[in-house]
Specification:
606 residues, alpha/beta, 18 helices, globular, binds 6-O-phosphono-beta-D-glucopyranose
Amino acid sequence: MCGISAVTGREDVVTILYESIRNLEYRGYDSCGLGVVSNGEVAVRKNTGGVEEVNKKEHLTHLRGTTGIAHTRWATHGRVTQANAHPHSSTDGRFSIVHNGIINNYEELRSDLKAQGAAFLSDTDTEVMAHLIAKSYEETGDVEKAFVAAIKHLEGSYAFCMVTPLAPGEIYCARLGSPLVLGAGKSVNFVASDVNAFLQHTRDALVMEDGEYAVVSPDAITVRKLADGSLVRRKPIRIEWDAETSKKGGYAHFMLKEIFEQPQTLRNALAATQEGVARMAGKIRAARHAYLMGVGTTHYVALAGQYFFSRLAGRHLPVVSSDEFVDLAVVDSQDLVMAVSQSGETFDTRRGIAFAKEKGASTAAIVNVMGSSLSMGVDEVIMQGSGPEICVVSTKAALAQMVILQRIALESALQEGRMDKAAYARAHQVLQAFPEQVSAVLNERSGFVRNLADRTAGYHNWLVLGRGIYYPIALEAALKLKEVTYLHVEGMPAGFLKHGTLALVDQNLMSWFLVPPTEEKELNQHTISALEEVKARGGPVIGLMFEDDQRAKRLLDFAIELPKVDPLVAPFLQLIVAQLFSYFTALKLGRSIDKPRNLAKSVTVG
Ligand code: BG6
C-alpha cells in the first residue's frame, strides 16, 4: 500500500504537503514525490528513498504553490526507480496524479494509449490514468468530466488524487477499494489515505466510500457518486486523537512508544463498549460456525481468540487466515465471520468479508482505525480505541484485540452459564488490575530485557515455542522478531518440535520458550519437557518464565523472569515482553525499526 495526500489552500501549501507525506510514511517508504501547481504547470519532483532522503536529493520543500499532491510508495508494479515514483503525468504534463491500489487492466489500456501516441515514462500501472484523463479531456473539454470518464475505464482498486493547471486550486480524487479521507480546514482542505496526514491542521474528517469522487477547493468539498454524479451528503467525523498522539513523544522509536503505551491501551480495550461485547457474544453463540479471520499479526490474534473461546466458553471457533479465507472457508447465512484488523483496510481481510457477505453470512469486526472500510462495512463492529499505531509492526493494537476477544469469550461463557457471575466478576477484576502490573514490568525490567537481547542478538536462527494459548503468543513473538530484525525465526507449538523440527537443533539455533505459569501445571510441564529435549541435543535455550518456576530457571541458559500474575493475563504479559525483546534485538542490530524493509502498515492490494 502507498500513502497519498493532497492539499489546496489560499497560502503556499508545500510545507503542509511535505509534512503530510512524512506522517504517512509507515504506509510505504521505497520512493516518494510531490507535484505542485504553479505558473500554469504542475512542477513534479520525485526519487527513490524515504521522504527526508528524497528531500535532500530533490529539494521537495523548495517547490512553491497553493495546490499540490504527494505520494510515498510501496512498490507493486515496476521496480523502485525514480521514473516509477509518483506523481505520474500525462504526455502534455497538464494532468498529474498519485495513486494507491492496483489497476488490473492496465496493460491493455497502456497498449491502446500507446497506439494513440501517449509516451509512457514508467513501468507502473498508475501512469495509464494520467494519459486516460488527457485523452478524455480532448473529448470533453471539461476537467471533471474527463476525470470521471477516465476512471470508468479502470478495473481494480484505487484511491487517486489529480491536479491540473487547467483547474488551479482544485483537487480531483476518487476511491474504490483503497482508503481516502477528506480533511475540512479553514480556507485549506485536505485529501489523504488516512487522517494522520492532516491531524495537525484539522480533526474534522469526511470518510469517502467506494464508488465516490470529490472535487476539493480551499473553501469547498463536493462529493458525488461516480455512477451517476449524484451529490453525496455526509457528516464529517471528529477524530478522537490529536497530532501530538501520533508523534514519538520523546521515545527513540514509535515501536518503543507504542509498547510503553500498552497500560493505557489496555484500559481503553477494557472500556470498549460492554453492549457491543455482549451483542458480539450473542452473535457468536447464535451462529452455526463463527469464523475468526485476520492476517499477519491479526491472524495470530485470531488464533489466541480461538484458545480463549475453547477454554473459557467451551466453543471451537474456526480460524482462517484472510489470504486463504476465500479458498478454505465454507460459509452461508447460518454463519458469522468476524475479522480482526488494526487498519480496517487490509485487502485480504476485506476480500474475506466481501466473500462472507456474498454467501449471506453475517459479519463483524474488531478494528482500530475509525472510518476505515471494515469499520463501516460489517454488521457489528467493536472499535478497540488503541489510538494511532504508527510503527509498521503491530504491538499495542494486537494486545488490545486479544483482550477484547478474551472479554467476548468471558461474556459468552457467562451467557452460556459455563461461568457464574462471581467467576466472571473475578476475571474482570484480574483484567482491571493488569495495566498497573504491565507498567511495573515495563519500568522495572526493560533494562534486563535489553541486556539479554544484546547478548543473544548474534544468533541468526531462532525457534519460538509455546503450548496451548502460548502457541499463538509464540507465533506472534516470532513474527515480531522476524519483522524488525530480519533474523530467520520460526514459531511453533512446543509439542510439535519432536515430530521433525528437532532435527534443526544445534549450538547455532536459539530456542526461545514461552513457559506458562506453574499453576498451569500440565502446560508448564509439557513445555519444560520440550525444553529438555532441546537441551539434551546441545541447543541453547532462552525463556520467558514466571518467578516461582525453579525448574525452568535451572534449565534455561538465558531467562527473563516475570512477576507472578493471574494465568488469565499471563500470556499477555509474555506477549508484551516478547515485543520489547524484539525491539531491543533490532536496536542492537541497527535495524530500521519503525519502517522495516519490504513491509507496509497494512497492505491494501491483493
Ligand atoms: C501487514 C502489517 O501489512 O498487515 C502487519 O505489516 C499487520 O503488521 C497485517 O498485522 C494486518 O494488518 P491489519 O491492519 O489488517 O491489522
